[in-house]
Amino acid sequence: MAVGQTLATPFLPGFFMNASTAPSELFQRIETSFLRQGLMQHLGARLVRVEPGLCEVALPYSERVNQQQGGFHGGAMGALADIAGGYAALTQVAPDMEVTTVEYKINFLAGFQGGELRAVGRVTRAGRRIIVTTADVTHRDASGKESACALMQQTIAPVPKTY
User: Fold this and answer.
1) Where do the domains of the chain lie, and which CATH numbers do they carry?
2) Among 29, 34, 74, 138, which residue carries the largest CB count within 10 Å?
3) Rounded distance, CA 53 to CA 18, Å?
4) 138/153 Cα distance (integer angstroms)
5) Which of 79, 141, 148, 146 is nearest to 108 (CA)?
6) Based on the number of CB atoms within 10 Å of its own CB, is 151 exposed (0-12), middle (13-18) or buried (19 or more)?
7) 97-108 and 46-51 as β-strands: parallel, antiparallel, unpaired?
8) What does the pLDDT look like over 51-97, one tens digit per residue?
């Protein structure tokens, strides 16, 4: 590709990248794993940001993620937090490894309808056998206002990659 030439990317419709905006190798590695997540694809989640020790994932409101009273379902919030924390952990392991959740604890702070949820996972401590992460889940309404939604802490274990 010539310098300055743009390329459309499948993970952000309407976004064009060039040499200065192309996703990093780390983002591409995490995205490869993320796109294999059937649940995240079914729910409509998207990978937003990846940095060493950090991952941000968004989940738009839809009939796939709501509960009987119309708000985001707690299971969808938990899954989003789990994914964000897990991928933050994945940034800390070797490329031939994956991670799996050992356990997590989540506190739901408030319920919301419409807009989208954003979960930012952060590594608290990365060891060889156990990685501890947290995830903050916020809600963004149509005007861009952000409100705290949930807080999660989890334990992750590195495992060999099998694909």
Assistant:
1) 22-160 (3.10.129.10)
2) 34
3) 25
4) 15
5) 148
6) middle
7) unpaired
8) 999 999 999 999 999 999 999 999 999 999 999 999 999 999 999 99
